[in-house]
Specification:
Elements (H helix, E strand, L loop, with lengths): L2 H7 L5 H9 L3 E3 L2 E2 L15 E3 L2 E2 L7 E6 L29 E2 L8 E7 L2 H7 L8 E8 L5 H8 L3 E2 L7 E2 L4 E5 L3 E6 L6 H7 L4 E10 L2 E2 L9 E3 L2 H9 L1
Parallel strand pairs: 7-13
Antiparallel strand pairs: 1-2, 1-3, 3-4, 5-7, 5-15, 6-7, 8-12, 8-13, 9-10, 11-12, 13-14
Length: 239
């Protein structure tokens, strides 16, 4: 692949900005300065590339884990409300990055952003059954072992105006202070809120802690994102 294209895809700037990096002699392959934007790079060469003497992390696609803040739509653009696309730095806004799945406007936590359409399709497929863990804050009576058993066998939602909907088994961890951890292997619309509502509780806070192997890094603040390591990317693809 052309070196200017792969540098741009890996977040080192627009094609124009990358060509300027090359023109200034800042990019080297195994110690040799590369100035030709059309220079062909193989995967075997990736580990030999440096920018200003520092190793370059290259990828055909981009992968980021965002700690989605409260009050943001899971969308790249919106004319009315803040959205996760607003949180991307300027050099990534042209990379065709999009969220994998969605979190509700007030739901926070783990959100994968990528321009790998194949992986995005697989991770949002109903056939992907990896666990997603949510920390839930609710009102109403404390949850008990009764709800644990109900969720574990796969409850059936019966809502006015809708056909009964059978859910897959879910794990419920009881926590103090009107909180619980709910671990799902599917992603129905507003599923956590609907499950709690069926037990006469109301969700007032929802935070996704993990999505398969993907988790927030220690100290990662709302609105911050990190680029996935090769090991983290490989783990997601294996799942």
């Amino acid at each position: 692949m052309r070196i200017d294209k792969i540098l741009a895809n890996s977040g080192y700037g627009t094609r124009t900005e990358v060509k300027e990096l090359l023109r200034k002699g800042r990019v080297c392959l195994n110690g040799q300065i590369i100035k030709d934007p059309g220079y062909s790079v193989t995967e075997d060469d990736f580990s030999l590339l440096t920018l200003d003497g520092q190793p370059i992390g290259l990828s055909e696609h981009l992968y980021f884990c965002l700690n989605k803040p409260d009050g943001y739509l899971t969308a790249m653009t919106d004319d009315r409300l803040p959205c996760v696309g607003d949180l991307l730095p300027a050099n990534l806004k042209t990379k065709k990055i999009s969220p994998v799945g969605r979190l509700d406007y007030h739901t926070t936590g783990v959100l994968l952003l990528t321009n790998d359409g194949d992986l995005s399709h697989k991770l949002t497929s109903p056939r992907w059954h990896k666990e997603k863990a949510y920390l839930v804050t609710y009102t109403g009576d404390p949850l008990t072992e009764k709800e644990q058993a109900l969720f574990a066998k796969g409850m059936t939602l019966t809502e006015d105006g809708h056909k009964p909907e059978k859910l897959k088994p879910a794990k419920l961890e009881l926590l103090p202070d009107q909180q619980c951890r709910l671990i799902l292997t599917e992603g129905k619309t507003h599923q956590v809120k609907r499950m709690l509502a069926a037990t006469n509780r109301q969700v007032i806070g929802l935070h996704r802690e993990s999505m398969g192997s993907l988790r927030l890094h220690d100290g990662q603040e709302p609105g911050e994102m990190y680029a996935l390591s090769p090991e983290e990317i490989a783990a997601l693809k294996e799942e």
